[in-house]
Known about the structure:
By secondary structure, the chain is mainly alpha-helical. The chain has seven helices and no strands.
Amino acid sequence: MDDQIYTNSEMSTAAAAGGMLFFIIYFAIIILLIASLWKIFVKAGKPGWAAIVPIYNTVILLEIIGKPLWWIFLFFIPGVNLVIGIWTMNLLAKSFGKTEGFTIGMIFLPFIFYPILGFGDAVYVGPAGSDGNTPNQLTDRV
Length: 142
């Protein structure tokens, strides 16, 4: 049997390479999400640079979905912030004419669904979809 013996330096090199690869992928996903949020803000008529300013981006997001500024304090309450975060994602999806199914995608696969919202053909229809009316529902009434 030809047993290979790995030295500590070989294992350290492999671990460093694996860690570096993980960091590069993680950094790429972060950049993709920031760019997506930037495009979402621009589509909603807000400044794109607001996506990179902490807390201010949440203020702009609340404006896009049509909720009051005091909602920002709900994000600081443990437990409540999870519910409000999911609700905010749902209202953001509806503001672009998407359904609850899209919200599920935004929750579990944000690195796929945020770029779809930002770079895709989604159109801002107003805060929370202008009272829940998606573009298809509006054309069906005519």
